[in-house]
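Following up on my earlier thread - several people asked me to post the actual chain instead of describing it. Fair enough. Here it is, all 241 residues.
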Amino acid sequence: MSEALHGQPDAFDRYVHTWRSFTRQVLMCIHDARPDLVVESNGNLAVVDIKGNASTLPLELIRWGAFEAPFSRWVAKLGPGEGAAVSLLSAVRQTLKGVAPLEPPLKSGFPHWDIDQTARERFVRLVGLELATSTPPIRRVAQIFDLNNTELGELFGVSRTAAKDWLDEGLVPSGRQAKLATILAIAELLLRKLKPGLIPGIARRSSQAYGGLNMLEMIGANRHEELLELARESFDWAATA
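Reply from S.P.:
Thanks for posting it. Predicted structure:
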């Protein structure tokens, strides 16, 4: 979190993606335990309000909590990692009917970050831009790698038709969310380090580093986590060579 506040792109991206991913994980756990509070339909999650209507507005409020988390009393008391997680849980509980909110640790004060006002404003602005993006992650992956429906389906081991449905809806099933997050992290890393027009060709070029496979084949073989680490190591080495 400190690195994100100081403007490091990789750390910032990890912070926003982690916030989004953890939000969905928490809501899915609530859905499994209390489907009367959180409902799911075709990969969409919604919170049930006091009138019994499913609404996505609370999810937007939770997402925007990413602005406040680093500066919350929870972070002051528990530290950046655990504090941000509890801050998110607190935001979730406030949206659930009949669930008591978490009482903030008032005696803890607020966290002190060694950043100036410019850095703080930059962090808030970047979070806003990231959260406000209108492109769903599955579409962004398809755009960055220039994937057709068949190629997209091969990444996830599903049919061309299923991939098309995901693109049309802008959603993937909950069981594929973790893989999608990793693929998006790979795509965003390449986008920061390379010219966008080069990425589709590079992703389809076999490499000895990948055992003769290309990036898309690595992902299709469920070696996406390995690929992400290799890509990070490659760019780290290139930066210091």
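The chain has two domains: 2-132, 137-240. That should answer part of your original question.
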